[in-house]
From TrEMBL:
<keyword id="KW-0969">Cilium</keyword>
<dbReference type="GO" id="GO:0005198">
    <property type="term" value="F:structural molecule activity"/>
</dbReference>
<keyword id="KW-0966">Cell projection</keyword>
<dbReference type="GO" id="GO:0030288">
    <property type="term" value="C:outer membrane-bounded periplasmic space"/>
</dbReference>
<keyword id="KW-0282">Flagellum</keyword>
<dbReference type="GO" id="GO:0071973">
    <property type="term" value="P:bacterial-type flagellum-dependent cell motility"/>
</dbReference>
<comment type="similarity">
    <text>Belongs to the FlgI family.</text>
</comment>
<keyword id="KW-0732">Signal</keyword>
<keyword id="KW-0975">Bacterial flagellum</keyword>
<dbReference type="InterPro" id="IPR001782">
    <property type="entry name" value="Flag_FlgI"/>
</dbReference>
<dbReference type="Pfam" id="PF02119">
    <property type="entry name" value="FlgI"/>
</dbReference>
<dbReference type="GO" id="GO:0009428">
    <property type="term" value="C:bacterial-type flagellum basal body, distal rod, P ring"/>
</dbReference>
<protein>
    <recommendedName>
        <fullName>Flagellar P-ring protein</fullName>
    </recommendedName>
</protein>
<comment type="function">
    <text>Assembles around the rod to form the L-ring and probably protects the motor/basal body from shearing forces during rotation.</text>
</comment>
<comment type="subunit">
    <text>The basal body constitutes a major portion of the flagellar organelle and consists of four rings (L,P,S, and M) mounted on a central rod.</text>
</comment>
<keyword id="KW-0574">Periplasm</keyword>
């Protein structure tokens, strides 16, 4: 019964995923990235305090003692030569992303992750931590109470952990102290980088922008780039030009692609996937080896010793699988999956069948295995 419901759920999932969706127009800002409009990664090294005995072991994480000494000395506490053995502090890495056009005084979210042997950051407080960008400059300072997404329960002989208690977030936990030096208003041309490069989609974006202005202001450079001439748009600034074109609707094209996840048995595919004429046969071979040793005892009052006689039972079984089946040319993959579901083929066996069809050159799509 359990396998029946698993196969039924998998069949329903695959049927839903293979229903041809009605293609619709998408906004340009959902298809491209605008040149210069990007975030910047920040990272810092700090200390979390206030943990309930779940912090770093100082002997196992000497860097925790070093940063704690530095912080105390900056606060005017002389700790030279002292020995620390606290269990309520932990050394952490603090990461964040500085959004484009962030201004000084703004607040951003940060992620805090333990780097020592701390067991949990639940309830801890991050001490003021500067966040640096790739150029080594400080762009934000983080501090606040950590919200951890896990929990740990321990006993003398067992422990149970749910989630990841050694990592957490601080919403609006960093304040921007320095702005990115970028004069966006002086740009004369801008590049629109497609998230999914495609010549047809790029040509449609070019045509849609030019049709909106009634003249040639956009040029497709390649499958992933469309150049916009800001001067030709006669807009007051590049921001005004992007504000006008980013909501223009374009119907994108996409490659035929099949994505499979072997760990979960998930199969996702597009509606444009096609299969040439091919024959498929699938079956399962099971080998069982069972050891049942026999102990032989000597007769009473007889000279001898106990002997263990090996006994091995080996069996080779072939479970009934998919017989030889032929797929007609031009058949969509959704139709093949529906047929395999009707035959009761499991998702993992489907993945093996799809791999074999791709290896035979009959699956006309990009095949991605995760």
């Amino acid at each position: 019964m359990k396998h029946y419901f698993q196969n039924l759920l998998s069949a329903l999932l695959l049927i839903v995923l293979t229903i041809p969706a009605l293609a619709g127009p998408i906004r340009i800002k959902d298809l491209v990235e605008f040149d210069g409009v990007r975030g910047n990664d920040l990272v810092g090294y700090g200390l979390v305090v206030g943990l309930n005995g779940t912090g770093d072991g100082i002997r196992n994480a000497p860097f925790t003692e070093e940063i704690m000494s530095n912080i105390l000395e900056r606060l005017g506490v002389n700790v030279t030569g002292e020995q620390f053995r606290p269990k309520n502090v932990a050394a952490v890495f603090v990461t964040a992303s500085l959004p484009p056009f962030s201004r000084a005084g703004g607040q951003i979210d940060v992620t805090v992750s333990a780097i020592g042997d701390a067991k949990s950051l639940l309830g801890g407080t991050l001490i003021m931590t500067p966040l640096n960008a790739a150029d080594g400059q400080i762009y934000a300072v983080a501090q606040g109470t950590i919200i951890a997404g896990g929990a740990t329960v321990e006993g003398e002989a067992a422990a149970v952990t749910q989630g990841v208690p050694t990592s957490g977030i601080i919403p609006a936990g960093a304040r921007v102290e320095r702005e990115i030096d970028f004069d966006f208003a002086t740009l004369d041309t801008m590049r629109l980088a497609l998230r999914e490069p495609d010549f047809t989609t790029a040509a449609r974006i070019e045509a849609a922008i030019n049709a909106s202005y009634g003249r040639s202001v956009a040029v497709m450079l390649d499958s992933g780039t469309v150049r916009l001439d800001v001067v030709s748009t006669q807009a007051r600034s590049p921001a005004h030009a992007l504000g006008r074109i980013e909501n223009i609707l374009v119907e994108p094209e996409r490659k035929a692609r099949v994505v499979v996840d072997q760990r979960s048995g998930t199969i996702v595919m597009g509606e444009d996937v096609r299969i040439s004429r091919v024959a498929v046969s699938q079956g399962n071979l099971t080998l069982r080896v069972e050891e049942t040793p026999l102990v032989v005892q000597p007769n009473p009052f007889a000279e001898g010793e106990t002997v263990i006689v090996p006994r091995t039972n080996a069996a080779l079984e072939e479970e009934p699988g998919l017989g030889l089946a032929e797929v007609a040319p031009g058949t969509s993959l959704s139709e093949v999956i529906a047929g395999l579901n009707a035959l009761g083929v499991s998702p993992r066996d489907m993945i093996d069948i799809l791999k074999s069809i791709k290896a035979a050159g009959a699956l006309h799509a990009e095949f991605v295995v995760r």
